[in-house]
């Protein structure tokens, strides 16, 4: 039985988009599915903008200069102490320090201690009071998205996809300053331009991006028989090759073995970043280092790839992108992300078939997904991960919070911005977020945003306008009984229909 257009409009915004703003449900109710499909046809992915959002190469060069300046400050002799009596600690003084007021429960910055990646590098800042440059860039990148790109689209399918692919090809800012400063540039340069293009083009852009090469240590990988390893003291690093096969393309059960991983690792030796300050070159950019490359022909999954420099690795990536196992892996993850934790097999088959037929044309893949009637089941079964949840609250209220508050909230909710615990990214299933601790933290987050947005907002009208036909009688009644506007909005944010899609 087909849904009503009202139901389709709500699912368009809440399942496939970023959530509803004021009046959005009414604006799309006449042709919701057509408007969703139109975002695919138009390849609409907003572009983050801001003066600090520079290229990865520029950012790496800035980091080099920053580290030099901090090093110079650290090496500078400390000034001699001024003569005269020195302050003496007293019990009263210590007590006063201990009782100095700090942020309370409703202080957005006090929701949780910042993650390790959000802290300045102790080595880089021990002798300097200057802000940690990679974190300042990360804040600017977050601001360009949470106060920029998420507010722009009517639906936001492209923005959701950018988030999906950034998690599929996950990097982590906690790896170190190089990845920390380039995380946003990685998403802008390697992900967004290819969201509606061919998967193999995105794959090639990702695996040769400096952020990924640093994150998975390929810049340290040296061919055992390469010119750079004449003394035999340097070795092969298989991290990137393993994750390309296990996470990025074929999947865990994709038909490869350890021999294939090692062979691919040999093929992509020499994929590195140019940082030789003594010689002119493309500083901070991808470069193929012939002297570090493992020479010779190599076989991967039954295919032999002749020695061809950097093209040898590119050929392998193209073949992996076109492999049937990759089609199934990508289809499964997309359907799981948008439809259900246990993806309906019928939709997965349709999406995988579209991938195979078009050789990885992602626009065709998305059309197969949204044209599947099963994807429009009105039952809301998936819990929003913290990133989606925070975005939905910001969109629904029209708030423009400081990026530091948003990042602190995501830290507290367990999904620090671009900083998963491993290369497999953040969980995309309900069980990953439905713990009692996670739900308790959502209460705090919902309360903070509700107090900031309450103002003249009527929670009853708010919940009717944003959720429309998804709104249950129980939720409406609970909102109506709230003693304050802030409490009413908080109840709306914590309702099952707001937290699920």
Structure in words:
This protein is mainly α. Among the domains are: 216-339 and 342-378, no CATH class; 381-499, no CATH class. 51% of the residues lie in helices and 2% in strands. The protein contains 24 helices and 4 strands. The protein has helices spanning 5-14, 24-28, 32-41, 56-75, 91-98, 122-125, 133-146, 157-168, 177-191, 199-207, 210-215, 239-248, 258-267, 310-321, 324-338, 345-357, 362-370, 386-397, 403-413, 436-453, 459-467, 473-480, 485-494, 496-499; strands at residues 271-273, 286-288, 298-300, 303-305. A two-stranded antiparallel sheet has the order 1-2. It is globular, with a radius of gyration of 25 Å. The two termini are 20 Å apart. This is DUF1800 family protein. Keywords: Plasmid. Residues 98-130 are annotated as: Disordered. Pfam families: DUF1800. InterPro entries: DUF1800.
Structural class given helices, strands, pairing? mainly alpha
Strand-residue fraction? under 5%
What integer value in Å does the Rg equal?
25 Å
Mean pLDDT: 91
Quantity of strands, as a count: 4
Note the gap between the termini.
Answer: 20 Å
Shape: globular
**What order do the SSEs take from the amino end to the carboxyl end, as H and E?**
HHHHHHHHHHHHHEEEEHHHHHHHHHHH
**Most strands sheet:** 2 strands, antiparallel
Specify the number of helices. Answer: 24
For the biggest β-sheet, the strand order reads 1-2
Low-confidence stretches: 89-120, 122-127
Q: Tell me the helix content.
A: 40-55%
Organism: Neorhizobium galegae bv. orientalis str. HAMBI 540
Keywords: Plasmid
Region (Disordered): 98-130
Pfam family, one: DUF1800
